[in-house]
Write a structure and sequence with these properties.
disordered C terminus, 11 strands, nine-stranded mixed sheet, globular
Length: 346
């Protein structure tokens, strides 16, 4: 089948033809990262082109590679995709640094800590920051916020959006051309309009919403982050059968991981703490037990060190364990106002 006959936007079709891709077979073995380089487009646009080809003409059958399982990918392509991915900034430079640039897309990140440490502030900040326009180094995406505790405050979200807009305009002195194009987006009201809020009041509603997300994200392709605040709340109250709880949580975590990979978005799970009896004493640990700790890619623990807030990377396949100070200000999550050289973990 000719490229010219496929439902691809004219600008993309012209780039494909100019690069020598005239038929579907000519794209049979190309990776998104390779295509993005050939056409000088971003990775997501290349991914969208290949998806259109696949949906329109059963790409894998036409390619003539029936022996390769659909979805197979080389480690080199995976590394290339990772290097091209943008991260979602937390608003704190030190925290972004230990996270390798910010919150990672295609991954599930758990953020836990004691009450009052700033977990909800963290979640709202990410829901705002994911919307920073591409012209200013952001994703220009939207957010899904699943609230299980009723802790989401729209007034606070508005304040954080105002702080984000203020910081963008302060950081980009030569922004006249870009600002004219992004003026409508750089308004607090626009930031709030791009947060899809779900209030759930039981674990069955929570599971139902997560099951619904597959269709929702197909319709809302600009969503780049899903936040659950908190993933723990209903599962700590409504279950007497712990074996059943473990199975339900396992199924939920698998769905969230699949959503993150399939839709190229970040999933952030806010978690509570509980006490655990270890080596003759009680210690604070994140809720839902040891089996749940395997349900996320990265785990970040927020804790107090004196009067200062710190974040600690407790688990990650690609990041070393490290800690960084942060502050919760009127504008949201920001750099710490003071730094402690010696950090005591909780």
């Amino acid at each position: 089948m000719e490229i010219a006959n496929l439902p691809i936007p004219p600008s993309q079709r012209a780039k494909l033809l100019a690069a020598g891709y005239t038929t579907i077979s000519s794209l049979s073995s190309i990776s998104p990262s390779h295509l993005s380089r050939d056409l000088n487009i971003d990775f997501q646009e290349a991914l969208d082109i290949l998806k259109i080809l696949s949906d329109a003409s059963r790409f894998n059958n036409v390619a003539g590679n029936p022996g390769i399982i659909k979805g197979a990918q080389t480690a080199w392509d995976m590394l290339s995709e990772e290097q091209m991915q943008k991260h979602i900034t937390t608003g704190c430079e030190d925290l972004d640094a230990i996270l390798g640039g910010g919150i990672h897309c295609k991954e599930v990140t758990e953020v836990g800590g004691v009450p009052g440490i700033g977990k909800t502030q963290f979640g709202i900040q990410l829901a705002i920051n994911v919307q920073i326009p591409v012209a200013y180094g952001g994703h220009g995406g939207k957010a899904v916020y699943i609230d299980t505790e009723g802790s989401f405050m729209v007034e606070r979200a508005y304040q954080i959006a105002e702080g984000c807009v203020s910081d963008i305009l302060d950081s980009f002195t030569d922004h006249n051309r870009d600002f004219s194009a992004c003026q409508d987006k750089l308004q607090p009201n626009s930031f709030l309009a791009n947060i899809f809020y779900f209030r759930v009041c039981s674990y069955t509603e929570q599971i139902a919403v997560i099951n619904y997300l597959e269709n929702f994200l197909t319709e809302q392709k600009d969503v780049k982050i899903v936040i659950i605040d908190s993933v723990t709340f209903h599962f700590r109250q409504d279950f007497d059968d712990l074996a059943l709880r473990t199975r339900v949580l396992g199924g939920m975590s698998l769905k969230l991981m699949k959503l993150a990979k399939t839709h190229n978005l970040a999933v952030v799970l806010l978690n509570q703490v509980t006490t655990k009896f270890t080596e003759g004493s009680f210690q604070l640990t994140l809720a839902l037990g040891d089996s749940w700790s395997h349900s996320c890619t990265n785990r970040v623990i927020l804790y107090w060190n004196g009067n200062d807030r710190y974040a600690y990377i407790d688990k990650s396949p690609s990041l070393p364990s490290a800690s960084a100070p942060f502050s919760v200000t009127g504008k949201g999550i920001r750099n710490a106002t003071s730094h402690c050289k010696r950090v005591r973990m909780m």
